[in-house]
Amino acid sequence: PNPTSNFVRLNSETLIVKLSIHNQIGQELDCISDLPSKSLKIDLSQFPSGMLYFQIQTKNGITRKSVHKI
């Protein structure tokens, strides 16, 4: 996983229709929907340090990515 402290950019070849952010124990910390975009800049400053998991939904399916928030 890539370490970051504030921002992360998510890019997709297809439109991102929903993004959910989860902590290490699976709790959903945030969910953003109805955002048809291929690129998102996410501000992580409001989330606690540790591993964060992104569930990215596009019309082609769901992708999961992780980042280490420092």
Q: Can you characterise this structure?
A:
The chain has strands spanning 2-4, 7-22, 28-43, 50-58, 61-69. It contains no helices and five strands. 0% of the residues lie in helices and 76% in strands. The protein has a five-stranded mixed β-sheet, with no helix packed on it. The mean pLDDT is 92. It is an all-beta fold and 70 residues long. It is globular and about 30 Å long. Strand 4 (50-58) and strand 5 form a beta hairpin. The relative contact order is 0.37.
Short characterization:
This protein has no helices and five strands. It has 70 residues and is an all-beta fold.
Write the layout of secondary structure elements.
Blueprint: E1 2-4, E2 7-22, E3 28-43, E4 50-58, E5 61-69
Parallel strand pairs: 1-5
Antiparallel strand pairs: 2-3, 2-4, 4-5
**Alpha-carbon distance between the two ends:** 12 Å
* Helical fraction: under 10%
Number of helices: 0
> Radius of gyration, Cα only, in angstroms?
11 Å
Structure characteristics:
70 residues; mainly beta; five-stranded mixed β-sheet; 5 strands; 76% strand; globular
